[in-house]
Amino acid sequence: MIKLISVAVLLLSFRTFAEPSTPDLLLDISFEKNHMHHRYSIKEVFDKGSTYVLSFTDERQKTQSMKISEDQARSIKNRATRIIWENLYRKPASSTNCLVYVTLKTDSEQTKICKDNAVLVGESYGFLNALRGAFR
Amino acid sequence: MGTMSTYTKSVLKIVFLIQLFSMNSSGQERDCLVCTFPLTPESLKPGQADACEDLYAAACVSANGKYKYQDIIKKEQAKIKKPVVDARNKAAQQMGYKDFNDALKSKLKAAGLTIKSSPDKEAWERLVNPDNFLSINGDADKIYETAQQCGKEKSELNAIPSYLLTEPAELKNIVHRYQTFQTKYKELSIKYNAQDIPNFVDQFGWRCKNLKTAGSSLPKSKDDPRLVQECANIPQLKRQETELFREEGSEGYQRKAEQFIRSHIVMDTSLGSVSLQTPVKSPPKSEVESLRDKIKLLDESITDTCNSYDSIVTNAGKKVTSDLKKEIARSRVTVESLIDSAYSPERQKLAAGIAQSAKNDIQDLVGSLVKDPKKRGDILEGYGDLKISWMQKPEASSYTKDSNGVEVLNEETAGKNLNGSARTAFFDPELSFFTSINAFYNPAGSTGKEKTDEQVTMQPAILSILDENPYAFLGAIAHESGHKIDPYISYINGYDLSGECEGLLNCYRDSKSIKLGIGQSGETMADYYSSEVLAREIQKLPQEQRKQALMSSMEIFCLSDVDINMSPFNEVHPETSLRIGGIYGANPSIRNVLGCKNDSSKFKTCGLNVSILDAPMVNPPTKDSGATAAKGAK
């Protein structure tokens, strides 16, 4: 009986350790134009410490990924956060129908930039262009 | 052209002007407009293969196996960026600075970030013109005096041989020096963090996240209890943070933001003070021993001080740079300077003339391709209305004065007062619309009561190619105009041509052709229409110049193959060598015009059964179907 319990405990503990920890999604950006859907994300992966992975999924659902440093992950997330804050906290509330240009989501906030917001569409365009540049 | 004499340039200019003024009133040219321009020097260099065998190897690769455009890539990149650099300098001058660099140095200094007497040139360039996010970190000590100073002071402290000292007064003095160091960089960090509250909150959130072990919501036992408490308070602090964010730039903002950080947020321990209390259960120690322990603890605590400080300084510098770029990008001087340089009346006339040639040729092609008279009529009429978008200077009423007295685009009215790409292009601090090589076709559309015209947009980097190589511009604008009748957009436009294209697309799917991938049909058909236009224009040249003209028209492709950063092409396009060799080089009309005697051994010949006027047809079209692969002459 004791042996059985020991085996069960052992198996359970193996199970606990064998289960890969789910990566944290720190940033998720979704962009669609002319039926072309692009998605960028940063995930924190726990594997003997934290590593950060920047991914780009193109219109054919093909995903390219690269490891980036914590500083780089913070820098990218910081730029997204500023656009999110400008949209959420500096823009007057609008009741008009929003045609979405880009959706930005971090681990704590998210927002949709509407096409009628010329200023933030322009800023987001530059941001997306720079992200795309990382995969060229 | 680098190799052209001034005399040749003048003669060519006169010939070009005669060409322009000989257009009839409808804008249609009498002859080949691009044919008056010189061919690129690269197209005259011997290639790795003959154009009839492999157009890619002929146009882009030298006989010695190197890229033909390798030597000019840096010059081309600088040429594309120059209008933005010039516009920024001009705007900075109007603001009272010598140039943009001078303005940036001054703004950084005002933010407490004095530049080193001789900053690292590459690090400075990365700050001013970052290629992407991945190349802009870890440069603080190469640019800013304060970051360099931190490293210097830390090294001095680390070098003190405290273990040799025996006098309490000397040791107390060292403790004091460590504490002064920490206080100094803690205060400076508060000052820089206060300049960018969203970033500070983000970084604080990052530290809170790191409190938790993976998969557990419980804090680690060694976590600072005050930090744990502050992390639990994040939602309550949000309101104050967003209020501060709204006040950014106003009088008194900096003081309030610094106060907020001091009151509510636990600083990173590497920047703050450490607990100097002796552990309770330790045996009593002499004063000297206690002081030495304190110094050891302090010495460990400052290990990461300058690294953390560098990150804070780097971010503060990027924020100042970004704010200046934002202000300059939307300033009236920049807007007008960029529009003047990219959208001159001379370029407009030449671009319109070349666009007209492309439209005429596509209309000619449609006459043979589309049998249904209703569809054909709609398409031919539609091409008459297809416009090339041309950015206009905004009205004076579109501007307002910002807090620095600079005339800038009015954010409030930009959405209504500005049109097309101008609505958003100047709100991107990097002005990337003006530096990315791209072009696109937009079908007509409407949102509510707002209507947008069907148009082709050639971004400034492509327009700049017009000056020296209109053959490449012709290929690009023909491609974009061709999208109007690609299998997807023709459906949106009300005349579905997917059936007419299917035979040709099947040919491209063949393993002996380009093995067309899923989702690439639209771009491939646009390339094909472009190749038909080039065949029709190039045939107007003497036979001996046609191969060079076709190779000149491939310049954008070849450049993008040398430097992927210059590539405007995404994954919906086939790979460059396949586009050039398997679509353009394998088009029977092109092969006829070039006088190719046989099929290429590399790519299957693929084209529609269309005829081009005056061309000596090597391959007479067959009548087996409306759209099948034409076989090359045997």
Topology:
The complex is a heterodimer of chains A (136) and B (634).
Chain A: H1 2-18, E1 24-33, E2 36-46, E3 50-57, E4 63-68, H2 70-90, E5 100-106, E6 110-114, H3 118-133
Antiparallel strand pairs in A: 1-2, 1-5, 2-3, 3-4, 5-6
Helix pairs in contact in A: 2-3
Chain B: H1 6-21, H2 41-44, H3 55-59, H4 73-94, H5 100-110, H6 121-128, H7 140-143, H8 145-158, H9 168-194, H10 197-209, H11 225-232, H12 234-247, H13 253-264, H14 287-301, H15 305-329, H16 332-342, H17 345-369, H18 373-385, E1 387-388, E2 399-401, E3 407-409, H19 411-417, H20 422-425, E4 439-442, E5 445-447, E6 450-452, E7 455-458, H21 460-463, H22 470-482, H23 489-492, H24 498-509, H25 521-538, H26 543-553, H27 555-562, H28 576-584, H29 588-594
Parallel strand pairs in B: 1-7
Antiparallel strand pairs in B: 2-3, 4-7, 5-6
Helix pairs in contact in B: 4-5, 4-16, 5-15, 8-9, 8-15, 9-13, 9-14, 9-15, 10-12, 12-13, 17-18, 17-22, 17-25, 22-25, 22-26, 25-29
Write a brief caption for the model.
The complex is a heterodimer of chains A (136) and B (634). Chain A is α+β, with helices and mostly antiparallel strands and 136 residues long. Chain A has one domain (24-133).
How would you describe this protein?
The complex is a heterodimer of chains A (136) and B (634). Chain A is of the alpha+beta class and 136 residues long. Chain A has one domain. Chain A contains 3 helices and 6 strands; from the N terminus they run H-E-E-E-E-H-E-E-H. Chain A has a 6-stranded antiparallel β-sheet with strand order 4-3-2-1-5-6, with helices on one face. In chain A, a hairpin with a 3-residue loop joins strand 2 and strand 3. The termini of chain A are far apart. About 8% of the residues of chain A have low confidence. Chain B has 634 residues and is mainly alpha-helical. Helix content of chain B is 54%, strand content 3%. In chain B, the strands form 3 sheets. A 3-stranded mixed β-sheet of chain B has the order 1-7-4. A two-stranded antiparallel sheet of chain B has the order 2-3. In chain B, helix 9 packs parallel to helix 15 and helix 12 runs antiparallel to helix 13. The N terminus and C terminus of chain B are likely disordered. At the A-B interface, helix 2 and helix 3 of A face helix 10, helix 12, helix 15, helix 19 and helix 20 of B.
